[in-house]
Amino acid sequence: MSKFAEQGPEGRVIFSDISQSLLDHCRAAANAEGLLDRCRFVLAPADQLAAVADASVDAVTTRSVLIYVKDKAQAMREFFRVLRPGGRASLFEPFNVLMSADPDSCGHRAHGTHEAIALPSNGR
Ligand SMILES: C[S@@+](CC[C@H](N)C(=O)[O-])C[C@H]1O[C@@H](n2cnc3c(N)ncnc32)[C@H](O)[C@@H]1O
Asked: Rounded CA gap, 16 and 32, in Å?
């Protein structure tokens, strides 16, 4: 919620998840901080964001979500579709050595985390 302050008085956030209870938690947190009118809540999987218009958001961010998404390429296409030109994506995922076909390939970072900033290409 503190990120709202960095967006100025016009900043708005769309919370999306497949869990209604998670969205209810976000709604309660936003309400507690008087920010509900700047929030929208979308019950949808990351690879089916039809409720979010094309080129309508400045940033997409996920944390520990993509590991659960079966069609990760489609999720990336959806993130790219909803981002405005020049928009950014910040994707944070944990390494999970137990799900790797080659646990040794994870080496010493097997229990660490990885964060990437993805900048859309083609001028977007
Ligand atoms: C480990 S929790 C992380 C929650 C939150 N992002 C955080 O960092 O605290 C994983 C979240 O991914 C959501 N999730 C699982 N599969 C999903 C999917 N296909 N599309 C969108 N969200 C999904 C779950 O409902 C859950 O809220």
From this structure: 19
Expressed in angstroms and rounded, the spacing between residue 20 Cα and the centre of ligand 1 is: 11
Does 78 contact ligand 1 (Cβ within 6 A)? no
pTM of the model: 0.82
**Residues 4-26 pLDDT 10s:** 667 777 899 999 999 999 999 99
Residue entry with tokens 């964060």? 115
Query: Using the 8-state DSSP alphabet, how is residue 52 labeled?
Result: S
**Residue ID of nearest Cα to ligand 1 atom 22:** 17
- Please report, for the chain, the start and end positions of each structural domain, with discontinuous segments joined by +: 1-43, 47-124
3-class DSSP state of 99 = helix
40: tokens are: 């929208």
Question: 47, 74 in Cβ contact below 8 A?
Answer: yes
Tell me, what amino acid is at 77? R
